[in-house]
Amino acid sequence: MTATLRRHWFLVTLLILIPLGAGCGLALGDSICRYSRTVEPRWITAVALFLMSFTLDSSQLRRSLESPWPVILATTINSGILPLLALAIAPFQLVADFRYGLMIAASVPCTMAAASVWTRQAGGNDAVSLLVTLVTNGTCVLVSPFWLRLGTGEDVELEFSQMTLRLLGAVLIPGLLGQLLRLNVRAREFAINRKPGISIAALVCILFLVFASSCDCGVQLQTDQPGPSLAAVAVVWGCCIALHLSAMLIAEFVIRATHVSDFDRPAVLFASSQKTLPIGVLLAREIGTAAGVPFAVFPMLMFHATQLVIDTAIANRLRKSRDSKPDAPNRSPDPHRG
User: Fold this and answer.
1) Residue 223's domain is classified under what CATH number?
2) Considering just the CA atoms, what is the radius of gyration of the chain in Å?
3) Which helix (DSSP H) or strand (DSSP E) does residue 201 occupy?
4) pLDDT tens, 160-172?
């Protein structure tokens, strides 16, 4: 039992924190959220990405830029194919709130930190996932409004300067700082020797974001308006799972067809199917207020929580499979090479 908990501690913690946060939000309301929002979520994301970048071999970034097909593939699925799938199943939702919410969840960019964290957990090339994060977040001011207009009929405007500053502060600057710090020999050796512990610290940042988001979900349940039925919740949650897994299956099919390396495979799987929570919640609240659909935020929270649980299990399985083939080709480069 102890060995099992040690291997799957993150998944177990997720399964505890999600219902705990929702229960706290429902019972305590905004009072619990004041504590969970003590630190701005985007700064927690920035810390997680800094830690990931600090332990990322710069040669991996260079190779990913020189051979960009995995980045192009993951970006195309995340920003194009996944929203198109959501467009096809959105009309089957039982309430308008969830029709809006499902399109919002599918239209936002790749996660700012989780995709890289899970890629590393699986022993893959987190340089690819980081680049997909930069591309999808950088283009979301054009991509997200396009898909939301098609799926909901609502005109959504994203302030370009605001989104650019968010991208710089939460993604680009932490990544650059992490790589600049590696230029120092002692810092680089520290990152190499302490890589497992630093990666765990990044996971703890993700757990904080999950708990804060779960608290927000519980607060949303306190609304005076009648909530959606259990059947409506079951349908949209099933659709969230189907969208996430469908993106992964499409990515896996193309990976095999185009002979993407085993090292790049986890990054493509996770970056093509994961969606970021902060931008999704922002859009859901804005559209929910404008269109009178207060529960539009729920599918985004469902999608995010579900992807974390599913991808934790998948990352563990990919890592176990990879470790069982020590002489397999396309493994991670030697971390001591610069």
Assistant:
1) 1.20.1530.20
2) 19
3) helix 195-220
4) 566 566 656 766 7
